[in-house]
Design brief:
mainly alpha
Length: 124
C-alpha cells in the first residue's frame, strides 16, 4: 500500500541503548547465564547452549567465532582492570562455585548480548 509503507526494521538506536543499559535486562541476563551454567561448560558449549535456549537455533561459524572472541576479550579486560568498589561484577545468579568471578561476569555480559540480538528482540 503506497499510503502506508512497510517498516524495514523494528528497533531504533534509543531502544538498543535502553535494552543494553536496562537493570531488568541485566538481571534477566544474570539469571539466564546462571541457568546455562548449572553444569561446567567450555566457552563453546556455553555459546551453543545460549543460542539454543534463547534463539532456538545453532550459531553460525561466524557467530561462534565472534562469540568466542567477545568472551575472551571481556574476560581479559575484567582480569586486568583495577578493582573499583563502586563498579560491581555482574555474576550469574546463581553463581557457579567452580567458576572465577571474572569468567562468570564475561558469561553474563555474553548473555546480555544474546538478549540484544535482533532475533531475540524482534518477532516478525
Amino acid at each position: 500500500n503506497i499510503s502506508c509503507p512497510a517498516r524495514q526494521t523494528s528497533t531504533t538506536p534509543p531502544q538498543a541503548l535502553i535494552l543494553i543499559n536496562s537493570e531488568l535486562v541485566m538481571n534477566s541476563a544474570r539469571r539466564f547465564a546462571g541457568n546455562v551454567l548449572r553444569q561446567q561448560l567450555t566457552d563453546e558449549q556455553f555459546i551453543i547452549r545460549c543460542f539454543n535456549m534463547a534463539i532456538g537455533r545453532d550459531s553460525t561459524d561466524e557467530e561462534m567465532q565472534a562469540s568466542i572472541e567477545f568472551i575472551i576479550k571481556i574476560r581479559d579486560d575484567l582480569r586486568t582492570r583495577e578493582t573499583n568498589e563502586d563498579e560491581p561484577l555482574y555474576t550469574p545468579v546463581p553463581m557457579p562455585n567452580w567458576l572465577p568471578e571474572t569468567d562468570a561476569t564475561a558469561y553474563t555480559y555474553y548473555a546480555m548480548v544474546i538478549y540484544n540480538m535482533m532475533e531475540f528482540v524482534y518477532l516478525p
